[in-house]
Each structure stands twice: as structure tokens, then as C-alpha cells.
Specification:
The chain is α/β, with parallel strands linked by helices. It contains six helices and eleven strands. About 25% of the residues lie in helices and about 25% in strands. The strands form two sheets. It has a nine-stranded mixed beta sheet with strand order 9-8-7-10-6-1-4-5-11, with helices on both faces. It binds adenosine monophosphate. Adenosine monophosphate (AMP) binds near residues 13, 100, 126 and 135.
Length: about 260
Amino acid sequence: MSSTKLKILVPVKRVIDYAIKPRINKTHTGVETKNVKFSINPFCDIALEESLRLREAHKGIVDSIHAVSIGPTKAQDILRTAMAKGADTSTLVDVGDEIVEPLQVAKMLKSVVEKQGLNLVVLGKQAIDDDANQTGQMLAGLLGWPQATNASKVELKDEEVFVTREIDGGAETLKAKLPMIITVDLRLNEPRYATLPNVMKAKKKPLEKLKPKDLGFESIENRLEVVKVEEPPARQAGVKVENVDELVAKLKELKAI
Ligand code: AMP
């Protein structure tokens, strides 16, 4: 990677904090979002961390790291966090309370990539709210760029990017030239925490605020409707058996064997 400078985009989604058990809303159309802690989607945090590590490992190679979030006004908080961790600049595409489906997100990201002349997009493999696992793939399709999904290792060598992916019983390594899309898996790295001085400094970093129409989208086009959201069935209490004979008899009684 001697001559091409990396201009990285890290899309970050604001989701209910991973440590919180979501509650289904009264109308069974989604989860309760009032008075719930929201954070940066964990996989997006890993994507950001990997971008920061590329910059630290290859001095002078990374030109810029830009974070973007498509979400409510409050998504500014996760952009400030991303900048406190090391992103240089950020953009919020404020869609208010609207839900935006992955294809629409990908179209907006494409527009940001083209406007800013970026050449590497590092995304999470999935957002833990909808578990769609679609955005990176759709963005690659829309841009016509190569994609390496579910990265467990990312390396830069000369003019190429090598991405290792965990597959059943082993690992697969792919290589591609820039521009490209990478989506990241859980074991790629452990994201850093933002230090207090960096949180203070991030307040001065640029946060651009756009509306979808600034990117050329007059309305949000959604094509899916949530019909019903249900809790998994409650587990029934177990039975204790004294010995193996009793266990076998019980399993036979339940027609399990
Ligand atoms: P998904 O395809 O929804 O599972 O999300 C995969 C990845 O796409 C996330 O980890 C983010 O990097 C990105 N992404 C999805 N939705 C958004 C959004 N609303 N704003 C910014 N990035 C997003």
C-alpha cells in the first residue's frame, strides 16, 4: 500500500445497548425504546477499532477516518464517541424516528462515499437490533466494489488488502485492491475505551448534520412491515431423575428415544 492513501468510512448504528434485555412493546410490533440505554452497535465499534489500528500500524497510510450514522438526532452521541476514540470527522444523516431498511442505508452510504471520494468502507457484519447482515453487501453491490465479509484479520501489504475470514473448521484469506468493502466479525479485535481528555477533544471535531434530502433522498423508502414480534416460549421446569435407568425410562416416556 505504498502510494494509495486510505480514506476510510466507518458507518456506525445507534442500537439498544448490548447488555440490556430488550422488552417487547405493548402492540407487539417492536421493542420498547423509551428509557432504555442506547450505544454504538458493538460490531461498528470493532470496525472503528480496526480502522484506528490500520492507521497506527501503517504510519502515513490512512488519510482520514470518517464516521457516519443514519438515525435519530440522538445518534450524535455515538458519533461523538467514535470521534473520541479516534475518528477525525463525522456525519449524521438525521432521519428522526423513521426506521431505515438496509438497502436505503446502503444507498445513503453510497452517496457519502461518492461525495467524499472514500476508498475503504469498514462496517459491522450486523447490527444487533435487526440482525439484518445486509448493509455492507448491498453497498458493495451498489458501488460495484469487491467485498470481504466477516473479517477476523485485516492486513495491508503493498497495494493489496488481505482479509481472513473464519469458516467452518478453518480460515479463508482473500485479497483485493482498493476500493473495497470490509465487514467485521466479533473476534477481530477488542475496541478501546474513549479517555476523558479525548471525549473533551471530540467535542471540537467536525460533526456534519444532514437530512436525507441533502443526499438526494426526498423520502425514506421502506418495503417491509413488521407483522408481529413475540417472546420465545417460556421454558418448562425440568425433572430430576435418580439414575440412568430412570433417565432412559423418562426419555422413552417422552418419546425422545
Ligand atoms: P445490518 O446490515 O443492518 O445488520 O448492519 C450492518 C452494518 O451496517 C452495521 O454494523 C453498520 O456498520 C452499518 N449500518 C447499518 N445500519 C446503519 C445506520 N442506520 N447508520 C449507520 N450505519 C449502519
